């Protein structure tokens, strides 16, 4: 069908190469509740290799996924890495056990330095392509000091670009007053636009916006309504609901880089095909009005 809205298929993060605009969030390649090893380690290795063969050029992970096991799995699957592959990881969370209540944010300079060095070691790289401060909620060091620590690591050559995760709009502006910020991750999808103000700010700054839970359709109260709006659009395009949700993300802003996670190669390939879907202006309007922005 003829359309009025389209999206580019690649995006450049900071000083790195252009990557495909649908990345891969590796968090699900861990144990239950993101704790411990992925149960079928060889299957995880094969999935990561197949993902890159299928066209994935951006992989998102974090030291707290496992903890540590996710980064090690990526190394065992893909090292030495192809030149076109960008790997992002994060530091600043600690977790003391299976229960999510043991998760806490740490931001002191020695811990962040150690975290970045250890992530580089686990990934088997001399420098990390994109390194996120995983949370702006740490109270053991001023936020500005945490950003300065990452800026120092970049000056030393350990990280190429700096990203921010789980931060406020005010923290985004504060960070940019100290150093260049290449990417921001935040919750943003059809049913939940919590990260809307950050999306607008990244657009104005020319910073990449990486929405997490990008294909979540809504909570139990909104799921039926959102699904009902998606289904006729999906039928017209011969696509799944998740593909339409991803296509909406790509059309929504030129700075978006969604990172859907899956343990299914079929779903992963379907996700990568979302950039080939072209939604009309009317379809975009229908989907965008499903939830308030912010």
Overview of the structural elements:
- The strands form 3 sheets. A 7-stranded parallel beta sheet has the order 3-4-5-8-9-10-11, covered by helices on one side. The chain has a two-stranded antiparallel ribbon with strand order 1-2.
- It has helices spanning 41-54, 69-78, 109-123, 143-155, 169-176, 196-205, 223-237, 241-252, 265-272, 281-288; strands spanning 10-12, 18-20, 24-25, 58-60, 86-91, 93-95, 103-105, 128-133, 159-165, 183-187, 208-212.
- Residues 1-6 have low confidence and may be disordered.
- Helix 1 (41-54) packs across helix 2, helix 3 crosses helix 4 and helix 7 (223-237) packs across helix 8 (241-252).
- Helices cover 38% and strands 16% of the residues.
- Strand 6 and strand 7 form a beta hairpin.
- It is globular and about 55 Å long.
- The two termini are 32 Å apart.
- The protein has 10 helices and 11 strands.
- It has a single domain, classed as Alpha-Beta Barrel (TIM Barrel).
- With 294 residues, the protein is α/β, with parallel strands linked by helices.
């Amino acid at each position: 069908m003829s359309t009025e809205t389209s999206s580019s298929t690649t995006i450049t993060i900071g000083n790195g190469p252009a990557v495909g605009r649908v990345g891969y969030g590796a968090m699900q390649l861990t144990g239950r509740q993101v704790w411990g090893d992925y149960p079928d380690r060889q299957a995880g290795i094969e999935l990561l290799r197949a993902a890159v063969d299928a066209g994935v050029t951006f992989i998102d992970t974090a030291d707290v996924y496992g903890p540590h096991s996710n980064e090690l799995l990526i190394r065992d699957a893909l090292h030495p890495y192809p030149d076109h592959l960008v790997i992002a990881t994060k530091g600043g969370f600690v977790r003391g056990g299976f229960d999510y209540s043991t998760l806490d944010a740490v931001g002191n300079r020695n811990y962040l330095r150690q975290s970045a060095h250890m992530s580089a070691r686990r990934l088997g790289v001399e420098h990390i392509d994109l390194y996120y401060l995983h949370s702006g909620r740490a109270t053991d060091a001023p936020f500005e000091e945490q950003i300065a620590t990452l800026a120092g690591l970049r000056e030393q050559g350990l990280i190429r670009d700096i990203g921010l995760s789980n931060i406020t709009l005010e923290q985004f502006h504060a960070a940019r007053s100290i150093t260049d910020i290449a990417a921001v991750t935040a919750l943003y999808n059809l049913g939940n636009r919590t990260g809307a103000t950050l999306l607008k700010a990244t657009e104005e700054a020319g910073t990449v916006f990486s929405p997490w839970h990008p294909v979540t359709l809504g909570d139990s109260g909104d799921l039926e309504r959102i699904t009902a709006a998606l289904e006729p659009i999906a039928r017209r395009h011969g696509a799944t609901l998740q593909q339409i949700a991803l296509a909406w993300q790509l059309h929504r802003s030129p700075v978006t880089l969604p990172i859907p996670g899956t343990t299914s190669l079929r779903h992963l390939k379907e996700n990568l095909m979302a950039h080939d879907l072209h939604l009309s202006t009317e379809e975009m309007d229908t989907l965008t009005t499903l939830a308030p922005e912010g």
